[in-house]
Write a structure and sequence with these properties.
There is one protein chain. By secondary structure, this protein is of the alpha+beta class. About 25% of the residues lie in helices and about 25% in strands. The chain has 18 helices and 42 strands. The chain has a six-stranded mixed sheet with strand order 4-6-22-21-16-19, with no helix packed on it. The protein has a six-stranded mixed sheet with strand order 10-9-8-11-14-15, sandwiched between helices. A five-stranded antiparallel sheet has the order 5-7-20-17-18, with no helix packed on it. Helix 7 runs antiparallel to helix 9 (about 230-235) and helix 10 (about 250-260) packs parallel to helix 12. The N and C termini lie far apart (about 165 Å). About 35% of the residues are buried. This is Integrin beta.
Length: about 800
C-alpha cells in the first residue's frame, strides 16, 4: 500500500513539472566533478565552493547548478563561482573621413573598418558582442589587371584594347586619383588535344596567311603601372594566337594572377581583375584529356612572366579559385560576350564579390563595362570570417542604410552603399566548451574584396578563479590523495569518494555495500543512489528542485502530501517525505491556516457569529447562511430583487445596468439552461438554492436561481428564453377585416340590386296599367296623316 502511495505521489510530482524541467538542466546533466567542468556546461551554471554546502548523500556534482537554485539551497552569493566573459579593444583607429582632392594618403593610412583588433574572453554558452563599423572611403586607390583571351576569335577585340590604357585612366580618374593598370593574356595549355603540336602549328597556329604568335598558357605582359601610355605600347605589340578546342585555359591564368602578387605588383588596395573572353573555360579534371593528372597546387609558377607548369598541373577547380581570390582580396569582373553570359552568371554566383558584364563583339564597350561593374561591386560589402575554432560560432546582424536591419546570412552584407556611407554590423561570438589545448585562438573578419580586416583574439574561461587557490595533495583529501580546490576534493587518478578515501579498484566490495543498506531487507542506497566507498551517493533528478538525501538515500523532498496540487500546499517545504510548515500553517499538507483574519465578517465577528473558523475557513452552523464569512443568505427575502438587474444584463443584455454590466455584475458565475425544468432544484443540491421569477420592462418574465455553492462561489442558472405574453395575430385580423369589408360591400350591392328590381317591376306594372287604360290608339287619331304617297307613271305600260 505504501509503495502505491509513493508511486502516485511521484507521478503527481512529475506531472507538475514544466517543459523546461522535462528537458533537463544542463548544469545537472553535466555531472561536473570540479568547478572547471561546471562553468563549461553552460552560461547559467555556477559552482558552490562552500565546504559545508553538501548534505548527506549528495554527490560533489550537486555543487553545480543554476544560480537561483544554489542560492535557494543555502549557498551564499559570495560563495558561488560564476565567472563572466569580457572584451577589450586593442586597436581602434577611426575610419577615414577624407574627400577627393584632399591631402594624399598612403593606402595603409586609409581606414575603412573599425575596430581593427580586439580581445574576447569567452565563457561557454555566453555570447560576447561588439560593433564593427565600415565606411567606404572616398578616393581609395585601385589596382586593375586586365586579363585577356588572345585566341584567334578575339582578334578584333585586341585592336580596341590597345588604346584601353589612357582611356581607362581618364575615366577612372573620376573615381580615384591613385589608379594603376596591368595586362596579361592567356590561350591554352600547350599540349594535345588543346593545341596542335606539329612543328608548323607550334610556330603559327592560325590557318591560311594569318600571322599568329606561338600558343602559350599565360603571360604577364605588363606589371601594374600608373603609366597608361606604357600599357598602350605593350598591348599594341601583342599578337593573336590559336588553339583547337573552344573552352580556353583562363582558370590557369586567374590562379597565377591571384597568387603571383610580386610579379603582378598588387598593393593593399582595391584589387580588380578584368577577365575578357568570348569562350567557355576548362576546369579541374579536364587536364586528363592531355594526360595531366596532378591537381593544381595553387602556387606561383611564373618564369620570365610566363606560366611554365601548364603541362604539369591540371586546371584549378572553382572552389580552389574562390579560396585564392578571397585570400588575396581580388574582385573579379567577367567581361564576356552575350553568348556565354548564362555560363559566367552561374560562375559569378559561386565566386563572392564578382560581376559579369556583356562584352560587345569587338570589345568597344569595355570601359563602360568596367566602370559599371566596379560601381556594382564597391556598392556592396560582405563580411567573411576565417576558419573558426571547434565549438565557436559567430552571428551577424547588419544595420544598413535607411535603417534596414538583417540577421542570419543576410546579416553579413549591406548593399547600395555610396562613397562616404557608413554602415554597422553587430557581431556576436559564442563558445561551447573549451578548446582541447585551452590556448588562445585567433580569427579574422574582413569585408570581401578589401585588404583591411579585424583581428580577434579569443581567450577561453576554462577554470574557476578558486582553482588558483587549490592545494595539491591536501590532507583534507584523505592523506593527500587529491587536490582541495573550490570547496571540494579533486581526486588523483585511481582514487574516488568525496574525500578521495577509496581506491577505484575497491569500490564494489561486499563490505562496503553492506554499509550502504539501511537494513538487510532494503536495497542498496534504497535504490535511489550508488554505493561509492561505502557511502551512498544519491541519484540526481531532472528537476533540480527535487533531490534524494539521507545516509541511505531514503529521504527526498518531493514525496510529501499535497494540497491544491501543490507540495505541502505551497506553505511549507518537504524534508524526508514530511512537510515542515511555514509559520501560521499546520496540517499534514500545510493546508490549515492558523490565521483567523480570513474569517472576519464585515461586522468584525468571526464567521458573522453564525459559524466556526477552521483552518482559516468558516464552517457555517446556520444552514441558511453561506459564503466565506457566513454572510450570504441566498434564500432570504429580497435576494431575487437584489440580483435582478445583473442577471438581466448578463443573460439578455438589457436592463438598467447593461452599460456597466462588466464592471458591476461579474461577481457570479452565469450558467444558461434551455427551460425551467433544467434549473437546479432545492433537493438536488447540497446547498440552498433560491428560485426567482422577475419581469422586465417589456412585461416579459425570466426565471433564474441564485445560490452559493460549496466552494463559496456564487452561481446563477437562468433560462435563456424570455417568457413574454403572446401578442395579437395580425394576419387573421387583417384578413377578417378585409373579408368583412368585401362581404358587407357584396351584401349592399345585392340589397341595392334587389331594391332596383322591385322598383323596376313596380314601374313596369304601373306602365302596363296606364297603357290598358288609354282611350285611343294610332289608327283612330283624328290628326293622324299617313306618311305614304302613291304616284303612277303615265308612261308605264306602253
Amino acid at each position: 500500500m505504501d509503495l502505491k502511495l509513493l508511486l502516485i505521489a511521484t507521478l503527481l510530482g512529475a506531472f507538475s513539472c514544466g517543459d523546461a524541467q522535462k528537458e533537463g538542466n544542463e548544469c545537472i546533466n553535466a555531472n561536473a566533478k570540479y568547478c572547471g567542468e561546471c562553468i563549461q556546461a553552460g552560461a547559467k551554471c555556477g559552482w558552490c565552493k562552500d565546504p559545508n554546502f553538501l548534505k548527506q548523500g549528495e554527490t560533489v556534482s550537486t555543487r553545480c547548478d543554476e544560480m537561483h537554485s544554489l542560492i535557494k539551497r543555502g549557498c551564499d552569493d559570495d560563495m558561488i563561482e560564476n565567472p563572466h566573459g569580457k572584451q577589450k579593444i586593442l586597436k581602434n583607429k577611426k575610419v577615414t573621413h577624407r574627400k577627393k582632392g584632399a591631402e594624399k594618403l598612403k593606402p595603409e593610412e586609409i581606414t575603412q573598418i573599425q575596430p581593427q583588433k580586439l580581445s574576447l574572453t569567452l565563457r561557454s554558452g555566453e555570447p560576447q558582442s561588439f560593433n564593427l563599423t565600415f565606411k567606404r572611403a572616398e578616393d581609395y586607390p585601385i589596382d586593375l589587371y586586365y586579363l585577356m583571351d588572345l585566341s584567334y576569335s578575339m582578334k578584333d577585340d585586341l585592336e580596341n584594347v590597345k588604346n584601353l590604357g589612357t582611356s581607362l585612366m581618364l575615366e577612372m580618374s573620376k573615381i580615384t586619383s591613385d589608379f594603376r593598370i596591368g595586362f596579361g593574356s592567356f590561350v591554352e595549355k600547350t599540349v594535345m588535344p588543346y593545341i596542335s603540336t606539329t612543328p608548323a602549328k607550334l610556330l603559327n597556329p592560325c590557318t591560311g596567311d594569318q600571322n599568329c604568335t606561338s600558343p602559350f598558357s599565360y603571360k604577364n605582359v605588363l606589371k601594374l603601372t600608373s603609366d597608361g601610355k606604357k600599357f598602350n605600347n605593350l598591348v599594341g605589340q601583342q599578337h593573336i594566337s590559336g588553339n583547337l578546342d573552344s573552352p580556353e585555359g583562363g582558370f590557369d591564368a586567374i590562379m597565377q594572377v591571384a597568387v603571383c602578387g610580386d610579379h603582378i605588383g598588387w598593393r593593399n588596395v582595391t584589387r580588380l581583375l578584368v577577365f575578357s573572353t568570348d569562350a567557355g573555360f576548362h576546369f579541374a579534371g579536364d587536364g586528363k584529356l592531355g594526360g595531366i593528372v596532378l591537381p593544381n597546387d595553387g602556387k606561383c609558377h611564373l618564369e620570365n612572366n610566363a606560366y611554365t607548369m601548364s603541362h604539369y598541373y591540371d586546371y584549378p577547380s572553382i572552389a580552389h579559385l574562390v579560396q585564392k581570390l578571397s585570400d588575396n582580396n581580388i574582385q573579379t569582373i567577367f567581361a564576356v560576350t552575350e553568348e556565354f553570359q548564362p555560363v559566367y552568371q552561374e560562375l559569378k554566383n559561386l565566386i563572392p564579390k564578382s560581376a559579369v558584364g556583356t562584352l560587345s563583339a569587338n570589345s568597344s564597350n569595355v570601359i563602360n563595362l568596367i566602370i559599371d561593374a566596379y560601381n556594382s561591386l564597391s556598392s556592396e560589402v560582405i563580411l567573411e570570417n576565417s576558419k573558426l575554432p571547434e565549438g565557436v560560432t559567430i552571428a551577424y546582424t547588419s544595420r544598413c542604410k535607411n535603417g534596414v536591419v538583417s540577421e542570419g546570412e543576410s546579416g553579413r552584407r549591406c548593399s547600395n552603399i555610396s562613397i562616404g556611407d557608413e554602415v554597422m554590423f553587430s557581431i556576436s561570438v559564442t563558445s561551447k566548451g573549451c578548446p582541447k589545448l585551452g590556448k588562445p585562438e585567433h580569427i579574422k573578419i574582413k569585408p570581401l574584396g578589401f585588404t583591411e580586416e579585424v583581428e580577434i583574439i579569443l581567450n577561453f574561461i576554462c577554470e574557476c578563479e578558486c582553482n588558483k587557490d587549490g592545494v595539491k595533495n591536501s590532507p583534507l583529501c584523505h592523506f593527500g590523495n587529491g587536490t582541495y580546490e573550490c570547496g571540494a576534493c579533486k581526486c588523483n587518478e585511481g582514487r574516488v569518494g568525496r574525500q578521495c578515501e577509496c581506491s577505484s579498484n575497491d569500490v564494489a566490495t561486499e563490505d562496503m555495500d553492506r554499509t550502504c543498506r539501511k537494513d538487510n531487507g532494503t536495497d542498496i542506497c534504497s535504490n535511489n543512489g550508488d554505493c561509492v566507498c561505502g557511502t551512498c551517493e544519491c541519484k540526481k533528478r531532472d528537476n533540480p528542485e527535487e533531490r534524494y538525501s539521507g545516509q541511505h538515500c531514503e529521504c527526498d523532498n518531493f514525496n510529501c502530501d499535497r494540497s491544491g496540487n501543490k507540495l505541502c500546499g505551497g506553505h511549507g517545504h518537504c524534508e524526508c517525505r514530511v512537510c515542515v510548515c511555514d509559520p501560521m500553517w499546520t496540517g499534514n499538507a500545510c493546508d490549515c491556516s492558523l490565521d483567523n483574519s480570513t474569517c472576519l465578517a464585515s461586522n468584525k465577528q468571526i464567521c458573522n457569529g453564525r459559524g466556526e473558523c477552521e483552518c482559516g475557513t468558516c464552517k457555517c452552523t446556520d444552514p441558511k447562511f453561506q459564503g466565506p464569512t457566513c454572510e450570504t443568505c441566498p434564500t432570504c427575502p429580497g435576494v431575487c430583487t437584489e440580483h435582478k438587474e445583473c442577471v438581466q444584463c448578463r443573460a439578455f443584455g438589457t436592463g438598467e445596468k447593461k452599460d456597466t454590466c462588466e464592471r458591476d455584475c461579474s461577481y457570479f458565475n452565469l450558467i444558461k439552461v434551455k427551460d425551467r425544468d433544467k434549473l437546479p432544484q432545492p433537493n438536488d443540491a447540497s446547498y440552498p438554492v433560491m428560485h426567482c421569477k422577475e419581469r422586465d420592462a417589456n412585461d416579459c418574465w425570466f426565471y433564474y436561481t441564485y445560490a452559493v455553492n460549496n466552494n463559496t462561489e456564487k452561481e446563477v442558472h437562468v433560462v435563456d428564453m424570455l417568457d413574454c405574453p403572446a401578442g395579437p395575430d395580425i394576419i387573421p385580423i387583417v384578413a377578417g377585416v378585409v373579408a368583412g369589408i368585401v362581404l358587407i360591400g357584396l351584401a349592399l350591392l345585392l340589397i341595392w340590386k334587389l331594391l332596383m328590381i322591385i322598383h323596376d317591376r313596380r314601374e313596369f306594372a304601373k306602365f302596363e296599367k296606364e297603357k290598358m287604360n288609354a282611350k285611343w290608339d294610332t289608327q283612330e287619331n283624328p290628326i293622324y296623316k299617313s306618311p305614304v304617297n302613291q304616284f303612277q307613271n303615265p308612261q308605264y305600260g306602253r
